[in-house]
Each structure stands twice: as C-alpha cells, then as structure tokens.
Amino acid sequence: MAENSPIGEIHSNLPNFLLSVRLKYVKLGYHYLISNAIYLFIVPILVAIGLHLSTLTLEDLITNLAMLKSYSTLVVFLATLYFMSRPRNVYLVDFACYKPHERYMISKERLVEKLAGIFDEDSLNFQKKILERSGLSDKTYIPVDKWIPSNFSLSSNQHQAKLVIVGAIDDVLAKTGVKIREIGIVIVNSSMFNPTPSLSAMIVNHYKLGVNVITYNLGGMGCSAGLISVDLANRLLQGQANTYALIVSTEVVSAAFYTGKDKSKLIPNMIFRMGASAILLSNRFSDRWRSKYQLMHVVRTHKGADDRAFGCVYQDEEEDGKKGMSLSKDLMAVAGEALKTNITTLGPLVLPMSEQLLFFASLVARNVLKRKIKPYIPDFKMAFEHFCIHAGGRAVLDELQKNLDLSEELMEPSRMTLYRFGNTSSSSVWYNLAYSEAKGRIKKGDRAWQIGFGSGFKCNSAVWRALRTIDAAIEKNAWTDEIEDFPVQIPY
C-alpha cells in the first residue's frame, strides 16, 4: 500500500516521458503483438484452401487424390497449430468494490483531532497541511478506533482485513451468482499486512473451499499489485480449462501507520483509506454472454535492476524501532521512467495503425536519421475511451493528465475516486471503473486502460474491452447511491 502512493504528494514534476522513448521498448511491444497474433495468419490459409476445394468437382477430387491428401494433411496441421497456439479468452464476469459502513467515515478535522495526542506540533501541522491539499473529502473511511497506537495489534489488523475482504467477495458472488466452490483459483494482494496463515488461507477457511483450490498471496508489491494479480490469473487460466479465478486487492491502513517525525514517512497517514475490490475472472466460453469485459492486454514493467529505482521507496526501521517508508528524491523521476517504458511497449498493441505509422516515422527520423524534428506524441485517446489511473495522489494525477493530454472528463473517475474514497492502494483502479459504470459511460466495445505503479519500481497496465453496455439504472456498486452528486469541484 504505502510503497508507492506517496508519489502523489511529492511536489516534483514527472518527466515528460512521451517526449523521449527508446526504440527497444517499441520493438518489445511489436514482439508481444506478433507473438500473440501468429494464429491470425493461419486463418486466411485455411480459408484459401477451402475456397479452392469448393471450386473442384467430385471427379477432380478423385483424379487428384494426392492433392486432396496433401490439402487434408495441411488443414489438419494448421488447425492443430491454430487451436494449440490460440490463447484462451479471459472474461471479467463482474467485480465489486467494498464500501465501508458509515461508522468508519471520518472528516479531515476529526482525523487531525485523533492524531493530536500522538504527534508533536511540527509533525501534526505537516500532516494537516498534506491533508488540506490532498484532494480527499470529509467522507473517506478509516477504522479510526483501531487506528491509534494503543490499539495496534495483530488481531485488530486481521479483523480489518477480514471485514473488507469478505465484504467485497460476498458482493461479487451475489452479483454473479457463482457458487464459491466453483472457484478454482484465489489470488490476494496486500502489500504491508501479510499474516500467517495468509489472507488467501483465511478466504479458504472462511468459505470452506475445496482441497484442490489454487491460492496465491502477493505481498510487498505496492499499489500495482492488483494488475500483477490480473496477469497472474490470466497466466493460470491459460493452463486450466473451465475455471473461475477470484482476485482480491486490499490494504490494511493501520499496518502502515507511522508515528515518527520523518516527514516523508508521514504522508501515507494522510492519504490512505479503507477499501478493497474483488474481481471474478473466467475462461469459460459460456460465460462470455454475461461477462462485462474481456481482457485484451497486460503489460508489466519492472525497473528493479536499477539500484536507484529499487531503493527509491524503501521500508526501514528507525533507531527507536518505528517502521516507515523512506522516499528518495529520485522517486518522481523513477516513476516517470517506468511509465514511459510501459506505455511505449503498450503503444504498438493498442494504437491504431495511423498513429503507429506517424509515431514510428518520427522515432526513426530522430533516432536513426538523427533529424532534429519535433517528436510525434501518440494520441492514446484514440486507443481508449476510459482511463483508470491509480488514485495515488493529486500531484501525480495532475502530471499524468498533462503528459497524456487528457480532458477533465477522462480524469474524472480517478479524481473522484481519490476525493470520495481516498487512496485505496491496489483496489483504486476498480473504484475508477465502477465510477464510469455508475455514470452509464461504459458502452459495448469501449476500451478501458487501467494503470498502476508500485515500489521496486514497477508500472503495470491492463486493457479491457467492454462486451456489453453497462446499464447504470440496474448496476449496483459502491457509487450507486450517491453517483448523482458527482462530479464535484475539488478545492486545492
């Protein structure tokens, strides 16, 4: 959780990553495209053979048994190659975002009051200043009675984790009608809180899942872990037919609470809030008709080989035993490099050919022919109708909006998610998508781009295509009861 989101409150600009790209990342994108599209070349060959055979008479076939045998062998070979190389389609049946009970709602003023007896005046004033310009409302959620040092305990953290996880899972099961025992894969990601037994084991125990269920528990991967979980589920579903995969993304607020005086470590106290999401994926063809989305691409970028990137967000322990996340001055620069690499790799997979040609021509002219021309900036708005950017903080949303040249409407889901629910870590991209659904903006064929980043340093993207129009009148999610109140003007 706290591993990457402080980025949003560091007052330094992201580098303009669209102005500087490396050819190797463009090549990597085309490599992904070609590797996953080989089977597309097989279909025309099979069609051509079928058309040719349709022009032959029975007498022609009898007199050309050798040709018929050759064609038959080729058809069998190509058909086998096609079905063996074709990846299984992965569908997002539905998802749910946890909305805490009103008793956990807290205003900024009350939060400052609760912290008054914990921190000295300087630290308290700093946190108050961060909170005032955070972009958060007075209706975010914190289990405040469990969130003061005297109440820190393993049992209270476990209680909070179970509360949000079970709440999200129950919601998605109710929405889909899928029985819990039909789920063959369970993946949980929580960065800071990883008890023993694991949170995934807690789910198995609570719902009494069968002995053959495959479980994974991802820890320490920051706010990008939700999309890493999607990638892991996708890979597992490729090898296991007719299976449901359940992904739970959450964070336990109190597990990352810092009580020291290091200002860079105090930021997460002010922006992280209670939340969780549960996503149900399926590779069953029969689920396509009722699923909301199909997974199109996942692109993961890891900069951990670079020592600067690896250490820019680092959990450490102070001499007095207080733990917190250390943020280096290189944080925003590292984040920008990771973002640049990710979108440069993603571009060839999603941009229309017209944009790719213009971009590639500009790239060759600048990097190969050494021409001093203005770089062509691809228009990602031609590739996506919806942008679900991790609501890590106001500053990073501002910079991403500027770099990607996004309108206020396209940024609205991320800004409203930050305002209404705060930074809910890896689950925030799902609150973003739920906002667009509640607004009735998701139409059949629309493409949604989810992007998150985390310590290590990582940047991950997932691309979804809507399989049907989402009817806001019947859709029920965390935003439904109050969606008419949004968007709001956010004071800074």
TrEMBL record:
Q: Which GO terms describe its cellular component?
A: membrane
Catalytic activity reported: a very-long-chain acyl-CoA + malonyl-CoA + H(+) = a very-long-chain 3-oxoacyl-CoA + CO2 + CoA
Q: Which domain of life is it from?
A: Eukaryota
Ordered alphabetically, the record's keywords are: Acyltransferase, Membrane, Transferase, Transmembrane, Transmembrane helix
The record's listing under InterPro entries reads: 3-ktacl-CoA_syn (IPR012392), ACP_syn_III_C (IPR013747), FAE1_typ3_polyketide_synth (IPR013601), Thiolase-like (IPR016039)
Q: Any transmembrane segments, and where?
A: 32-53, 65-84
EC number(s) from the headed UniProt entry: 2.3.1.-
Q: Does the keyword Ribonucleoprotein apply?
A: no
Quick one: where is this thing mainly located? membrane
Question: One of this protein's Pfam families, by short name?
Answer: ACP_syn_III_C
Q: Where in the cell is it found?
A: Membrane
Annotated Beta-ketoacyl-[acyl-carrier-protein] synthase III C-terminal domain ranges read 385-465
Question: What GO annotations for molecular function exist for this entry?
Answer: fatty acid elongase activity
What biological processes does GO assign it? fatty acid biosynthetic process
**Keyword tRNA processing in annotation:** no
Gene3D superfamilies the UniProt entry points to: 3.40.47.10
Report the residue ranges that make up the FAE domain in this protein: 82-367
Could you tell me which pathway this protein works in? Lipid metabolism; fatty acid biosynthesis
Tell me which family the UniProt entry assigns to this protein.
Belongs to the thiolase-like superfamily. Chalcone/stilbene synthases family.
Looking up PANTHER family in the UniProt record yields: 3-KETOACYL-COA SYNTHASE
Q: What is this protein called?
A: 3-ketoacyl-CoA synthase
